[in-house]
Amino acid sequence: MTSTELTAGVTAFIPGPASPYQGDIARYWDGEARPVNLRLGDVDGLYHHHYGIGDIDHAALGDTGDSGYENRLISELHRLESAQAEVLLDHLGPIGRDDTLLDAGCGRGGSMVMAHQRFGCDVEGVTLSAKQAEFANRRALELGIDDHVRARVCNMLDTPLERGQVAASWNNESSMYVDLEDLFAEHSRVLSVGGRYVTITGCWNPRYGQPSKWVSQINAHFECNIHSRREYLRAMANNRLVPQAVIDLTPETLPYWELRATSSLVTGIETAFINSYKDGSFQYLLIAADRV
Ligand SMILES: C[S@@+](CC[C@H](N)C(=O)[O-])C[C@H]1O[C@@H](n2cnc3c(N)ncnc32)[C@H](O)[C@@H]1O
Ligand SMILES: CC(C)=CCC/C(C)=C/COP(=O)(O)OP(=O)(O)O
Ligand SMILES: [Mg+2]
């Protein structure tokens, strides 16, 4: 194991990828700089790599014709992405200032900052990408919360956290990069008994039958492996995680996608999300589970 000092003064442990696939994913996120993510993050300094939920505020958006419309559209997409993270945090249960939380697959750290700002607690994040961890730690330093919010380069299936160390943990659109049995075994290990696990994820719908062509297109686009709703529930049951809430957020995420599809920041994946949500082959799901 090697270690390196980040500009933020936080030591990141870099054990190297556990598999060639993880090496590919680390390179993918090290190289990611899509305007749809950076321009949205620039709105208020919360950088997300997840999607949005909720109704469009048409009054705030105003007329398509006028000069400020594109900036207002970007602000609106960003507001919906932050609203998504707020809903995830709503499901963590009561969290105290002395608690520690785990953000598994933390990206550029937007959700970690929001969690600390809401609860005053410590938040530990892990990502495969050294660039993302540096970015998240730099933001924490700029905000003066680097003593509470820390991102490390490590595999979420094998974290340096102690058994039972965290009061709550989550995956926000990061569980489609790992085996779910391995993932939930690790969350179950680091969560205290009675702690809460939350995921927001896209999953394929067993009622459709198999992954649709749209789901396959999303997998190819992000180099990920979307699991089915059934796999989530089965792997949780096998790892002492008992669902407390299963919420289908599909109707709430469609407005975000339909608005995003009209913006200058489109990436080309919008049609696959919209079509798969509409044909029922894909669902945007929140699952909150108790560690028993
Ligand atoms: C789509 S981004 C989500 C980022 C963040 N959760 C958010 O909501 O902004 C997926 C993240 O999962 C991370 N990831 C994927 N596989 C991982 C693994 N095995 N261990 C740690 N992080 C992983 C990636 O590095 C990336 O940060
Ligand atoms: C719901 C599913 C299946 C998500 C896959 C994981 C993923 C890449 C999420 C968004 O990241 P991003 O914010 O970097 O993507 P984009 O650039 O499209 O906004
Ligand atoms: Mg994005």
From TrEMBL:
Its EC number is 2.1.1.255. Coiled coil: none annotated. CDD domains: AdoMet_MTases. Its cofactor is Mg(2+). One of its GO terms (biological process) is methylation. The keyword Lipid metabolism does not apply. It catalyses: (2E)-geranyl diphosphate + S-adenosyl-L-methionine = (E)-2-methylgeranyl diphosphate + S-adenosyl-L-homocysteine + H(+). Pfam families: CMAS. It is an enzyme of class 2 (transferase). Catalyzes the SAM-dependent methylation of geranyl diphosphate (GPP) to yield (E)-2-methylgeranyl diphosphate (2-MeGPP). This is Geranyl diphosphate 2-C-methyltransferase. It comes from Streptomyces triticiradicis. The lineage of its organism: Bacteria, Bacillati, Actinomycetota, Actinomycetes, Kitasatosporales.
